[in-house]
């Protein structure tokens, strides 16, 4: 379907949620209609199909008991619950405790528990580690690795813009995490600056797997639709308008590219400064507008990297494996990038 035809027809079948007052607030999203199983040919789709079947082995970690945790402070609040900084009273080790406070139906809780089990089994230095999952009377809790540097969103708020050498290091570490996930048939579906965590050891890790799901051998469409729509790829907004082809791995790459571009220019790339960031506006910008472009004063390597991520056609986006050898990352590969300056202005 040509770009002109797509602009005349946006086959959206999703109800529009209530307007939010500020862009920073999470947007409640509805469940999508069932979508067809993607074909097995071409581009990133074929790359995903060719990944060998792999069940994540359970990471050998000592389970943490909720009763042994003592709350120290609140790290963050959201529509789904709160995150606390906690201390293990016996060992003194610090963790993050995420609590989903709203009591959901049993089927929803089971789905959340299944998806969090993915995180508990993940064993990558680029993925936030999970040390325990609990369902107590309908209240679900996760004991997570504590990242003492905050999020990439905090860094961006403090610095307004992030220089390319730092973005190259962020991209390199996040892509290694995504490569691990995608090779194990896992898609994240909510890559954004607030889900990329940093610690004082200069490690960047992917967090918030409440929206992750394991791809079946058939690579069937993910059935849940949770996440921030601002960072969703065009085909997630409008599956029919993009031929019904959905590749969750490719959608993660779009979200990463959008996040990095936001860090480079200091604002959300798909909207003009001051433009209202509600659901209809985002949908129109992402589905009908041209992909956001990197700034003209950016290096050719960074411009190429961003364009490799932000292709409207999901099959044309580069994979995590391919992006790890991109000239933008190679340009800074031999330079030791110390992320400490990014953390100095934060209140840690």
UniProtKB/TrEMBL annotation:
PROSITE patterns given in the database record: PROTEIN_KINASE_ATP (PS00107), PROTEIN_KINASE_DOM (PS50011), PROTEIN_KINASE_ST (PS00108)
Database matches in SUPFAM superfamilies: Protein kinase-like (PK-like)
Protein kinase domain segment(s): 69-329
InterPro entries: Kinase-like_dom_sf, Prot_kinase_dom, Protein_kinase_ATP_BS, Ser/Thr_kinase_AS
Pfam families, A to Z: Pkinase
EC annotation from Swiss-Prot or TrEMBL: 2.7.12.2
Molecular-function annotations in GO: ATP binding; MAP kinase kinase activity; protein serine/threonine kinase activity
Keywords recorded for this protein, A-Z: ATP-binding, Kinase, Nucleotide-binding, Phosphoprotein, Serine/threonine-protein kinase, Transferase
UniProt record, GO biological process: response to other organism; response to stress
Residue positions binding ATP: 98
Domain of life: Eukaryota
Gene3D superfamilies with a match to the protein in the record: Phosphorylase Kinase, domain 1, Transferase(Phosphotransferase) domain 1
Reactions it catalyzes: L-threonyl-[protein] + ATP = O-phospho-L-threonyl-[protein] + ADP + H(+); L-tyrosyl-[protein] + ATP = O-phospho-L-tyrosyl-[protein] + ADP + H(+); L-seryl-[protein] + ATP = O-phospho-L-seryl-[protein] + ADP + H(+)
Family: Belongs to the protein kinase superfamily. STE Ser/Thr protein kinase family. MAP kinase kinase subfamily.
Protein's name in the database: mitogen-activated protein kinase kinase
The species this protein was found in: Araucaria cunninghamii (Hoop pine)
């Amino acid at each position: 379907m040509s770009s002109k035809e797509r602009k005349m027809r946006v086959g959206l079948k999703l109800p529009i949620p209530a307007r939010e007052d500020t862009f920073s607030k999470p947007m409640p999203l509805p469940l999508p209609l069932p979508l067809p199983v993607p074909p097995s040919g071409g581009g990133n789709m074929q790359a995903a199909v060719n990944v060998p079947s792999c069940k994540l082995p359970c990471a050998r970690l000592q389970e943490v008991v909720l009763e042994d945790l003592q709350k120290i402070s609140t790290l963050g609040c959201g529509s789904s619950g709160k995150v606390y900084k906690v201390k293990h009273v016996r060992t003194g080790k610090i963790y993050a405790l995420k609590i989903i406070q709203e009591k959901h139906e049993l089927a929803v809780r089971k789905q959340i528990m299944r998806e969090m089990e993915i995180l508990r089994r993940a064993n990558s230095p680029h993925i936030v580690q999970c040390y325990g999952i609990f369902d107590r009377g309908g209240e679900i809790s996760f004991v997570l690795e504590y990242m003492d540097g905050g999020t990439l969103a905090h860094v961006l708020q403090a610095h307004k813009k992030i220089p390319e050498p730092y973005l190259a290091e962020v991209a390199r570490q996040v892509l290694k995490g995504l490569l691990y996930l995608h090779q194990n048939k896992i898609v994240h579906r909510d890559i954004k600056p607030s889900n990329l965590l940093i610690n004082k050891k200069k490690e960047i890790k992917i967090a918030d797997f409440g929206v992750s799901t394991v791809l079946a051998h058939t690579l069937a469409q993910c059935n849940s639709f949770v996440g921030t729509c601002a960072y969703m790829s065009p085909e997630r907004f409008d599956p029919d308008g993009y031929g019904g082809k959905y590749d969750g791995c490719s959608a993660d790459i779009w979200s990463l590219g959008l996040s990095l571009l936001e860090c480079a220019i200091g604002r959300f790339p798909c909207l003009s400064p001051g433009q209202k960031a509600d659901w209809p506006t985002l949908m129109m910008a992402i589905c009908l507008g041209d992909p956001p472009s990197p700034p003209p004063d950016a290096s050719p390597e960074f411009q190429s990297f961003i364009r490799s991520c932000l292709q409207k056609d999901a099959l044309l986006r580069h994979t995590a494996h391919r992006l790890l050898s991109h000239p933008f990352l190679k340009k800074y590969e031999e330079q030791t990038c110390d992320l400490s300056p990014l953390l100095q202005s934060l209140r840690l």
